[in-house]
Design goal:
This protein is mostly helical and 182 residues long. It is built from 8 helices and no strands.
C-alpha cells in the first residue's frame, strides 16, 4: 500500500462513522506529509506509507472487535495501537529512534514509585500504589513499542526471542552470572 487512493480505498470497508473519522485522519496526515516531503528528517516517505497502512489495519481490527476493553490484546495489536498515537519528530530516521529510546527514561518513573513505597509506606504495596506503578509501566511499554517500531522489529518477535533465551539459560543452569552469551 503506497498511494493515497489505495489507502482511501482500504477505508471503504469500514462502517460509516469509523470510515469518516479515519478518512479525515488520513487526509490530515497526507496534507502534513505533502508539506514536509522535502525534509527527510520530518517525513521518511516509505515509513510514512507504512504508518498510514498501520492506521488502516488498526481501524479494521477495532471494527472487528479485537480491542474489547483491551482484554487479550496481543503484542501486535498493542504495537499497532501505540503507533497510531505516536507523534514525534523524525519518524523512521535516527532522530525518531533517538526520541523513542530516550523515552525509555520513563523507567525512572517506575523506580521512583517503587522507591517511595519503600521509603514512605514501609515497603507495603497498596492497591493505589500498584495502580500508579502499572500506569508508569504502560508508559515504558509505549516507548518500548516505539523503539521496536523504529528498528522495524515486532514486539512479539522481541518477546519470543527473549523468552527463548531465558528458557535456554534455565535449562542449561546459567540463569545466574553475567554476559549476554551465557
Amino acid at each position: 500500500m503506497n498511494t493515497e487512493q489505495e489507502l482511501l480505498d482500504g477505508v471503504k470497508g469500514l462502517n460509516a462513522g469509523r470510515r469518516e473519522h479515519l478518512e479525515i485522519d488520513l487526509k490530515n496526515r497526507l496534507k502534513v506529509a505533502r508539506e514536509n516531503f522535502t525534509n527527510p528528517e520530518i517525513v521518511n516517505v516509505p515509513v510514512f506509507w507504512k504508518d498510514l497502512a498501520w492506521l488502516l489495519k488498526l481501524a479494521q481490527m477495532e471494527e472487528d472487535g479485537h480491542f474489547e476493553e483491551f482484554g487479550g490484546l496481543t503484542f501486535e495489536q498493542y504495537q499497532i495501537g501505540a503507533k497510531s498515537t505516536a507523534i514525534y519528530p523524525g519518524n523512521g530516521t535516527i532522530i525518531g529512534l533517538s526520541y523513542a529510546a530516550l523515552g525509555l527514561g520513563e523507567t525512572g518513573e517506575v523506580q521512583g514509585k517503587v522507591k517511595k513505597v519503600i521509603r514512605d509506606d514501609d515497603g507495603v504495596l497498596s492497591i493505589e500504589k500498584r495502580d500508579q506503578i502499572a500506569k508508569e509501566l504502560g508508559d515504558v511499554l509505549w516507548y518500548l513499542a516505539a523503539v521496536a517500531d523504529e528498528i522495524g522489529v515486532p514486539l512479539e518477535t522481541i518477546a519470543n526471542a527473549n523468552y527463548k533465551k531465558l528458557t535456554s539459560r534455565k535449562e542449561r543452569g546459567v540463569l545466574k552470572g553475567s554476559g549476554d552469551e551465557r
